[in-house]
Each structure stands twice: as structure tokens, then as C-alpha cells.
Write a structure and sequence with these properties.
CATH superfamily of the largest domain: MoaB/Mog-like domain
Number of strands: 11
Number of domains: 2
CATH class of the largest domain: Alpha Beta
Oligomer: single chain
Number of helices: 10
CATH architecture of the largest domain: 3-Layer(aba) Sandwich
CATH topology of the largest domain: Molybdenum Cofactor Biosythetic Enzyme, Chain A
Helix content: 40-55%
Order of helices and strands: EHHEHEHEHHEEEEHEHEEHH
Strand content: 15-25%
Radius of gyration: 23 Å
Largest sheet: 6 strands, mixed
């Protein structure tokens, strides 16, 4: 399963907000064997969102869109997703009732504060889409064909993703190894193992942890196991974290 992740928000592009959602969702998908093919941040721009949703919906098995839902003027995601499929926005009874219940709970907790909320704007989703109720917040998400629209607030995103997580599955598996060898010294082995086995290997130097972390990915367990065993034997890689002194000599070796 190949999935594209579209994160929406001017604040992401300006650097005002760190895009932790992209990292979290990508990790969740990868852990389920899904291939994340795109991670793209776009502004709160109706036409830009429409364009990306249309293209990604056609190109990939699934699209996850986060951010820009609700009733404020910059929340244009729902309208844009609806337009991408030539749909209108509608307010189903189930989403309206959920928003009203949430507002009632807020009024009980904040009896001295008057809440002025456009319930219809908050509860609107594209017609003929599947609503995803927001147990941790106000505005609902939805599923429209292969596009999943989720909130941008991290707690709400995580809560809503849990409701659809089982719909994302794939056959990619990964294994991790660790080595004290400088990266430049094991390039030949990484190239060799990808020739011998149907795997991809990434090497990630980590000076804080004082080792190189190798990530081996495959769609066949036998190929994955074979590649892992070969690297363990060939470059003395370890299946548990090891460490070494990243001294001046090591730095020079890595640049050669």
C-alpha cells in the first residue's frame, strides 16, 4: 500500500509550527508495512489543496490530509477536498450532534464564558463521505474515496487516526542493525547486500548514540532475514545498539 501525506497550514510553511504530525503519521504507517511515498506541506490555499488531492488520489492507494478543518476563515481543507471530487459540503445529523455534544460539555466546564460557534461550519463534511467523529475535539474528519481528512491538532489527529489505523496495511518489513564502523568503510557492504538480496538499506550515522544505524527494508521475510544475517557476519554488525568514540580519525575516515 502506497500512501501520500498532505499536511495543510500556512503556519507549517512559515516555521511558526513544527510539523510533528508528518513524522508521527509516517511512523504509524511504516510500522503497519505501508510505503509512504510523499510528505508534502501546502498552504491554506483552496486551489493548491484541490490540485494535490486530485493528483495524489489518482496516483496512490491512499491520501492522508491533516490540518485546516473547522469553522475559522483559514480552515479551507474540507471545502477543497469536496471540490477535488466535485462534491458539495453537507452537515450530517451525526456530525452536527457530535459538535453540539462537545459544545454542551464545554459550556458545563466554562459556565461563565459565552461560546459563539457556527455549528454548521464546524460539522460540515463533503457529501457522500464517511464521517470520522472527533472524540478529542470539535470538528469531525471524514473519508472520501481513498482520501482521509484528519485534524491538525496533534491530540485530535492521534485519536482520530486510531479509528482508521487498521485500514492501512502493507507488506514492507524492516530490521535494524548497528555498527561501529565509519560509514565510508561499509559502503561496499551496503552495495553488495542490495545486490545479493531484494532489500534496500539506509545508513544513518548517529553521533549522540555513537554508532551507525542500518535500516534494512524488504517485502519478503526470507530476503530480510538473509540480508540481516549477511551484514552481521560480514561487517560485524550488531542487532543491539553499540557505541564507539567518534574521534578525529573517524571523521577523517568518513570523508575519504
Amino acid at each position: 500500500m502506497e500512501v501520500a501525506l498532505l499536511t495543510v497550514g500556512d503556519e507549517l510553511l512559515s516555521g511558526d509550527t513544527v510539523n510533528t504530525n508528518a513524522n508521527w503519521v509516517a511512523t504509524q504507517l511504516t510500522d503497519r508495512g505501508v510505503t509512504v511515498t510523499r510528505i508534502v506541506s501546502v498552504p491554506d490555499d483552496h486551489d493548491v489543496i484541490v490540485d494535490h488531492v486530485r493528483r495524489y488520489s489518482e496516483a496512490f492507494d491512499g491520501v492522508i490530509v491533516t490540518g485546516g478543518i473547522g469553522g475559522t476563515p483559514d480552515d479551507v481543507t474540507m471545502e477543497a477536498v469536496a471540490a477535488a471530487f466535485d462534491r458539495e459540503l453537507t452537515v450530517p445529523d451525526v456530525t452536527r450532534a457530535a459538535v453540539e455534544r462537545h459544545l454542551d460539555a464545554l459550556e458545563e466546564r466554562l459556565p461563565d464564558r459565552e461560546l459563539s460557534v457556527d455549528v454548521a461550519a464546524e460539522a460540515a463534511i463533503p457529501e457522500r463521505s464517511r464521517p470520522l467523529l472527533n472524540d478529542a475535539g470539535l470538528a469531525p474528519g471524514c473519508v472520501l474515496e481513498n482520501v482521509y481528512v484528519l485534524p491538525g491538532i496533534p491530540d485530535e489527529l492521534k485519536s482520530m487516526f486510531a479509528a482508521v489505523a487498521d485500514e492501512f496495511t502493507g507488506d514492507r518489513r524492516s530490521a535494524y542493525l548497528y555498527t561501529v564502523e565509519p560509514e565510508a568503510n561499509i559502503v561496499w557492504a551496503l552495495e553488495n547486500v542490495m545486490d545479493r538480496f531484494a532489500v534496500t538499506v539506509g545508513c544513518y550515522p548517529d553521533r549522540e548514540a555513537e554508532h551507525n544505524r542500518l535500516k534494512i527494508t524488504a517485502t519478503d521475510d526470507a530476503q530480510l532475514d538473509g540480508a540481516r544475517d549477511w551484514l552481521v557476519d560480514t561487517i560485524n554488525a550488531s542487532e543491539t545498539p553499540v557505541s564507539r568514540d567518534w574521534g578525529e580519525d573517524d571523521s577523517e575516515a568518513e570523508t575519504r
